[in-house]
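It is worth pausing here to work through a concrete case rather than discussing structure prediction in the abstract. The textbook approach is simple: state the sequence, then state the predicted structure, then interpret. We follow exactly that order.
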Amino acid sequence: MTNTKQIMIETCGLTKTFEGGEKQVSALKDVNLQIHTGEIYGIIGMSGAGKSTLVRCLNFLERPTSGEVIIDGRKLSSLSDAQLRHERTEVSMIFQDFNLLMQRTVIDNVCFPMEITGVKKKDARQRAKALLEEVGLAEKASNYPAQLSGGQQQRVAIARALANNPKILLCDEATSALDPKTTKSILALLKEINATRGITIVIITHSMSVVEEICTHVAIIDEGNLAESGEVEEVFTRPKSAAAKRLVLPESSKAIDEMKSKRCVRIVFSENSSFEPVISNMILECKAPVNILLADTRDVNGTAKGQMVLQLPDDEEVADRMIRFLEERRLAVEELEGYV
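Step two, the predicted structure:
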């Protein structure tokens, strides 16, 4: 389906190379992305893949070696220093370690970016109070960051990031220092902010579960390259690149590697198919057992998605019949031979 929304962020041939003595390290290699207005867009990759370099290039905290970053139709490379500073007020960031000013109270932390842009103190405090109310921390206005939990500190950081009404919010591993329950609450807050404000949110993460829970679209970065991009549901159901398959099926790699059979398939259950005992019916129909290597359920953008990895019989004819049986029931079926 064609996205008719306006493009908010675009990268064209984005490349970043770091010089290290006699060595060159290519952190990003010809990355081309389009992120539309109002999307929650995930950028995911393993440690060292280049995703944090990418997010820092999106607001020119890191200047690309080559290529372009275009924000709301404006090429960042064409802006003067003053214009770039103004553009950065519309592209806020939140970080893994919160980056709060420990000597300032919560409300003063939220006021800080407004001080920099010249907002009157009275107006800044009034807006800061409203933002703290929005993130559920109105009663903590006079506290200092050290008196807050990690999740509360990140809520303060989110309020601060919203202070100057940005059109884009960049979240660099914003939940990786938090426990699962707190992570879920922060993601729910970001989703609510996106829904009420229409702000474009980019989530940088190494966790596929974060992408599945909150994002509508995803880009997978692998060794500086854009391995794959698309709607989260499509990438989860039919991952094309090896990097995407590793992220979707991290737990199954060892099991698949150790299996004796050559035939292994991953199936994804739709909402309709989840009501039928498909595997039991397939075994009865084909009169042969299968080995279940992995079975789980994921929350993909608010929809429960079940997946299984099955080790099929050595008999090629029986295995082919089983695959046909699954496909006839409109399941997404992918052979994983040679995946690992």
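Step three, interpretation. The chain has a mean pLDDT of 87. The chain is about 35% helix and 30% strand.
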